[in-house]
Write a structure and sequence with these properties.
alpha/beta; four-stranded antiparallel β-sheet; Ribosomal_uL1_CS; tRNA binding; Ribosom_uL1_bac-type; globular; RNA-binding
Length: about 230
């Protein structure tokens, strides 16, 4: 069992084992972000789904109203004039078959890969290298599109793709611990509403099981899901 540091033990002592009101939870997250670097705000949500069934899978995108606080490096794979269009729209890397070959050899200095539909058959061979990192473009995730300018702008502004893992848990970054508590709460609310809107058709029984937030190096804080769902979005 991993040894818990003195710093983390002291922080854990501040957290009660109970669901916190959403605003109280994000305030605690900020208070417990004491690492020597700019920590990220993370949320881990257990849903009542079994993703091994296709009608119980969750994969979608959320546009965080306050952004992620992160610089996203976007790569685009396209053909012909679409490559120049991607560069003009702010893509950090853009190319065609030669870029696919570079990625296949392990060159992956990007956080997101967008592809146009016509080149997806060529991108398919990257499944083994991109799949494990969650970087494979997908129509559901908004990263397979002909509207490159909109997609690049949205992802750079704070749009995130997320999915439930094989155990039905969703792990998402929803900002930086340095954000105000109100901004973090607004992002968390947007995420909750997106998950509710995209509830898989096959989900049975209680959909929301648990939600915990934390800073990158901080302790887990349980959030009262019912209270979060009751908040009226602005």
């Amino acid at each position: 069992m991993a040894k818990v540091s003195k710093r983390l033990r002291e922080l854990q002592a501040k957290i009660e084992e109970r669901p916190y009101e959403p605003l109280e939870a994000v305030k605690l997250l900020k208070e417990t972000a004491t690492a020597k670097f700019a920590e990220t705000a993370e949320v881990h949500i257990r849903l009542g789904i079994d993703p091994k069934y296709t009608d119980q899978q969750l994969r979608t995108t959320v546009a965080l109203p306050k952004g992620t606080g992160q610089e996203i490096r976007v790569a685009v794979v396209a053909r012909g004039e679409k490559v120049a269009e991607a560069t003009a729209a702010g893509a950090d890397i853009a190319g065609s078959e030669e870029l696919i070959d570079e990625i296949f050899k392990g060159k992956m200095d990007f956080d997101l890969l967008i592809a146009t539909p016509d080149i997806m058959p060529k991108v398919a061979k990257l499944g083994k290298v991109l799949g494990p990192r969650g970087l494979m473009p997908s129509p559901k995730g908004g990263s397979v599109t002909n509207d490159l300018a909109s997609a690049i702008a949205e992802f750079k502004a704070g749009k995130l793709e997320f999915r439930a893992d094989r155990t039905g848990i969703v792990h998402v970054i929803f900002g930086k611990a340095a954000f105000s508590a109100e901004d973090l709460l607004e992002n968390l609310k947007a995420l909750q509403e997106t998950i509710d809107r995209n509830r898989p058709a096959g989900a049975k029984g209680r959909f929301w099981r648990s939600m915990f937030v934390s800073a990158t190096m901080g302790p887990s804080i349980e959030v009262d899901i019912a209270a979060l769902r009751d908040i009226k979005a602005e």
